[in-house]
Amino acid sequence: SLFGSSDDTPVGRFKSYLRIATVHPVPDYKPPSDFLLAQAKEIGLEGKTLEYVKGKPVTLLTWMGTSPSLPSILLNSHVDVVPAEKDKWEHEPFAAVEDAEGNIFARGSQDMKCVGMQYLEAIRNLKAQGFKPTRTIHLSYVPDEEVGGVDGAGNFIASKDFQNLNVGVNLDEGLASPGESYRVFNGERSPWWLKIKTTGAPGHGSKLYDDSAFENLLKSLDSISKYRAEQFSLVKKGLRAEGEVTSINGVFLKAGTPTPTGFVMNLQPSEAEAGFDIRIPPLGDVDDLQRRIDEDWAPASRNFTYSFEEKVYPRDKSGRPAVTTADDSNPWWVLLKNAVVKAGGKLSKPEIFPAATDSRYVRQEGIIAFGFSPMANTPILLHDHNEFLNAKEYTKGIAVYEEIIKAYSSYAPDVDSQAEL
Ligand SMILES: CSCC[C@H](NC(C)=O)C(=O)O
Ligand SMILES: [Zn+2]
Ligand SMILES: [Zn+2]
């Protein structure tokens, strides 16, 4: 066929998509978009591209519902993947080699080309069964998630195009699960990427004096380290899940006077800097964290200045925690749970995603969003060497999406009770 595979089966088409190396730092977004548009045409979906940034198309596929005025369903996936260190892999990372056990090795096999193709395969099957959706279903294939999504989902979700889709519920990526239950995420922690910098008088390495830059920084590191230990101990004691505490991890340190072979060893430097990746849960205390930064970690009294490379506010536009209700009061939660069970799967308790996905842009709009990648019995290998997904597990996921799409697109309660949905 057009994309170099003669294997025109669900698994074959998955492999074809995996073989399109949409890899950072310079993914070519045209080939996957052409591939997806060709798939859409074959299945009978409307397809178009929206290009908010040149060379970074959002591919939007649509299955019109019979009641197109009802809020729609948006199935999102990102087309880009992180790089792979080829020589550390057992199989070429973009060859989509299937081993004797049916494991398909490729960068993107878990994160998240599986999901992007499973949506399409589920729709292909539903169409073949003669199913007619009541609500309209949109599939968005976005660029640049792996570099923060600003040029991808960020632009798309801020657009008039997106508003016009009238999205009622969104699905995006989750994580694989080594156990038999699928994981599901109803919120995520927000990144604050903090850089702190202090200055102090330089001096001889032998002299004890107050307020050296290095000493200023050590005090901050001490305070940060204590806070980190407190948060981590809540996880270690089993009192909180990983996504429910604030994490802070050092990511760089910068100080010293370089020589051609190392650093000057008897000179106390006049500047010291450090960087931290902080993640705040949706219900985390933003004011407390900000106070710690101002008073303990980067106080002006110790000559600090600070800046953020990233600072996502963990609330939606109305000031509510950017978290989706995942209990029986939310019909979209109930539908999801029941659909998974109907497909023969199990769903774990909802969790907060520890890192950031494109879902944050949707939840910030106050729209219901679940992170869900149907991969059970699968080691978590996103961004890792030898990322793989088993063909059987992939195929099970298609059946799961068939049930979800059926349930979601058929959901049409009485007109007066569905204003919010
Ligand atoms: C600020 S965007 C960063 C996005 C990235 N996402 C993942 C899934 O690793 C992260 O959480 O670091
Ligand atoms: Zn991803
Ligand atoms: Zn990723």
UniProtKB/TrEMBL annotation:
Keywords: Cytoplasm, Hydrolase, Metal-binding, Signal, Zinc. Its cofactor is Zn(2+). Zn(2+) 2 binds at residues 111, 146, 383. Zn(2+) 1 binds at residues 78, 111, 173. GO terms for cellular component: cytoplasm. CDD domains: M20_AcylaseI_like (cd05646). It is an enzyme of class 3 (hydrolase). PROSITE patterns: ARGE_DAPE_CPG2_1. Binds 2 Zn(2+) ions per subunit. Residues 187-295 form the Peptidase M20 dimerisation domain. GO terms for molecular function: aminoacylase activity; metal ion binding. The keyword Zinc applies. One of its GO terms (biological process) is amino acid metabolic process. Its main location: cytoplasm. Pfam families: M20_dimer (PF07687), Peptidase_M20 (PF01546). This is N-acyl-aliphatic-L-amino acid amidohydrolase. It comes from Ceratodon purpureus.
